[in-house]
Amino acid sequence: MTDFEIISPATIKELFIVIKKCGKDNFRFGAGYTDLLNELRKKTEPELKIINLAQVKDSQFTGIKTGIRGLWIGAMTTIQQLVSNQIINREFPVLHQSASSLASTQVRNVATIGGNICTASPSGDVSCALVSLNASCEILRVDGRTRMISIQDFFLGPRKTLLNRDEVLYRIFIPQNKPTSVSVHSGFIKVGTRQSMECSVVSLAFHIQSDKKSKIIKAGLAIGAASPTIRFTESACNFLIDKTLKNISESIKDEFAENVVVYASPISDLRASAWYRKEVLYNISKSVLEVNPS
Fold first, then answer.
1. How many independent structural domains does the chain possess?
2. What is the pLDDT of residues 135-178, one digit of tens each?
3. Left (φ > 0), alpha (ψ -120 to 50) or beta: where does 242 sit?
4. What is the model's pTM?
5. CATH assignment at residue 224
């Protein structure tokens, strides 16, 4: 592993100063370090500076807060905080389940939601759930200005995001469920050779809202490990609108699964072939409609 200098700003203001001072130097951000240390063991980076975000004291940067229109999650919130939060468990089960599936308890206690997102892995469990929820990212610049962007647009490719060097991911916003929604059918399906300690061979996150007559009024579905980035399956979601979630026919399930799979462009690697990934994705997509909402 290469030697590196760690810089630990204590406030957002100090963080801005550090980023400006680093200028064009080789620097990385560190939070829970669960991914970063593994990367540094594999790859030498000369004269590397690590800006440690873990010591930054800012109430918006850490923790989970309920707003008028939805839920705000600070980028430094740990994955275990997501698992333990009762609002997430009740309102957004897909996020609760994806967080619970991530690695081990020890890792979840230090890994952060911001780090998971900024790693930009196509198989990112939490990121997949957030895409299905139509989440947005609040990005903070060193001049104090912010911008909001859909999390779908945040990912440019494997390990690539649209963050500029003078920006940090600050908060994640999840819109509240529709007021007319009386039932939420929401979950995360992860297929791998092992469970939580394994990257997904393919994954699927879904969040389907129904009215009092069980008619679907809003649907969000995303697929992971099936393309260069996590994909929101818009046509599959639109296909479900106005359908009744109970007793869906086999032909409807098949058509829905076909609408999901068109978004997949998987690769073959040591863990699975492209053909296998598509077959699994088709089958788990159908299974989404075979489970009645609670």
1. 3
2. 999 999 999 999 999 999 999 999 999 999 999 999 999 999 99
3. left
4. 0.92
5. 3.30.390.50
